[in-house]
């Protein structure tokens, strides 16, 4: 099948650019304390390449020979900006940027804030999602955003050693705010085409390597100036024979309405007509009630717990028997992480786990536990960078995978040279062992 008829590209390059001029193409960057890990794609198999590294503010330049499409370079200056490019026998790839320095966790991918390689989508990293692929590997996705940018590209990365190392898999285009999930041994991506864009569902039958074109569940506006679909890579759960997740419609200027989208677990997930979006409701006159985490409460109710205000989450209830009905407002609850995106997970043995940023900063990523969804106790911290400048540091928008007492977390990260706490230059990974 030709690439024009696929959702996946390895890599995606805008159609008006010459892909052959991009090779060797650097597809993954991971800065080290005094070096960098690189991975690239080459259209000349077996070719020995030269890796050029140049300090941006100095004449220092070095080159390294590589016979495979990956290399680890050390011995560079710490906390220093560098240019890097790959030279093959017949052509040279584009220059990329990185900054040396340590970062908490394991780097899935990195993008220097002044690197314009993905500028057709954005110049910051966003929207991590993580899943256990049917083949047993970990698969993580992230997208590229920027102010006044199209925001329509997602990249996938795989780990075959439980998160200790990561490799590039493919790009999805158009794809934004995507959530990876597995259903009946098949891998799916529920996403938007761009901010406020079309709602899409796609499937891969080879563990994420290739993806057929997605189905369009609903059309959005695809305009930052009009209302459209909004979501984050929020949890998808199975209850009462259906798959459920949260969804919003609106804009930051005009506010958001809330809904849930669901489908019968036995239906074809890639047929748009099988999905049901509930009636829309505007539960509050405040603009921000978004990025809801769906969870069953101890009373057997399906709740949408939404990011709302400082230390206050908004609670809506879905109708398990009538998925097309509007959500019912139950009120607010005290919640220590409601000022930023969080996830609530329901343990099979009982009890709840939530991961997010405890108020007021985003440079501490915490884990809380509860038995009743009302009283929350701090279990521990995945990252505590409270001694750093909170205006330029952030560990936020966690995507979590719970397996027994182990939790795997992909995190949107601003650190070591980020423009600010929100505009991220890393996507990082952590394995957290629960104490309960």
From TrEMBL:
Alphabetized InterPro entries for the sequence: Sialidase (IPR011040), Sialidase_sf (IPR036278)
Gene3D superfamilies named in the record: 2.120.10.10
The residues covered by the Sialidase domain are 204-403
Superkingdom per UniProt: Bacteria
The residues that cross the membrane are none
Annotated CDD domains: Sialidase_non-viral
Cross-referenced Pfam families: BNR_2
What protein is this chain from? Exo-alpha-sialidase
Q: What is the lineage of its organism?
A: Bacteria, Bacillati, Bacillota, Clostridia, Eubacteriales
